[in-house]
Amino acid sequence: MSRTGAASRVAGTGEPRPDASKAAAQQGTSSNPAALHRSVRSLNRPDRYWQTNGGDLKLGPATSPAARSAATFSLVKGLAKSGCYSFETADGDYLRHRNGLLHAEHDDGSRLFEQDATFCPRPSSFTGATMLESLNRPGRFLRHQDSRLVLDPYQNTDLYRADSAFLLVDGLA
Questions:
Q1: To the nearest 10°, the Cα dihedral for 173, 118, 159, 129?
Q2: Residue range 115-140, pLDDT digits in tens
Q3: Do residues 40 and 34 lie in contact, with contact meaning Cβ atoms separated by under 8 Å?
Q4: Whole-angstrom Cα distance, residue 21 to residue 48?
């Protein structure tokens, strides 16, 4: 399902939102061999990656083969908006926010799930990094906090900007 949205600005920053439609249009689904396998690395903790840990997501080192696999996702078109991203795990779950935390869960087919699992790339104040804004919670971005991945309202602080800056790198697995 393809949805388009009007250009707008990142809530609280005045910065324009990038046109992610070109990059998202090149994405496939995990059943498509063209799907991009990506890992998400913290900018201010460069030895740490998003990793599934049961149904939870943590930020940690990817030093073992199991950790490298847990830190690799299929980057696909956003389930609720094609100009954004969704992250699919190797076992077919999707990363979604629920109760302020990022989890890996099975798609229940609901509109809420699609929206919770859709994150729109936004410019970071750090060159090459991306911030990921929740589609259905505008102005809230994914960030790491005590090794957990949380959804927090934008804060104009150096720590917040650093904790919410991520690099989408080639998959580790």
A1: 60
A2: 999 999 999 999 999 999 999 999 99
A3: no
A4: 28
- What is the four-CA torsion angle of 121, 78, 163, 60, rounded to 10 degrees? -140
Q: Is residue 87 within 8 Å of residue 73, measured between CB atoms?
A: yes
In Å, how far from its chain's centre is CA 138? 14
Task: Give the torsion through C-alpha atoms of 120, 77, 92, 171, to 10 deg.
Answer: -80
Average pLDDT over residues 7-17: 37
**Token match 């927090």: residue?**
152
Chain CA centroid to CA 112, Å: 17
Residue 98: strand, helix, or coil = strand
The two tokens of residue 138 are 């505008």
d(CA 63, CA 137): 33
Q: Which two tokens stand for residue 155?
A: 């804060």
Residues 50-69 pLDDT 10s: 999 989 999 999 999 999 99
The answer to whether the Cα torsion of 124, 151, 19, 42 is positive or negative is positive
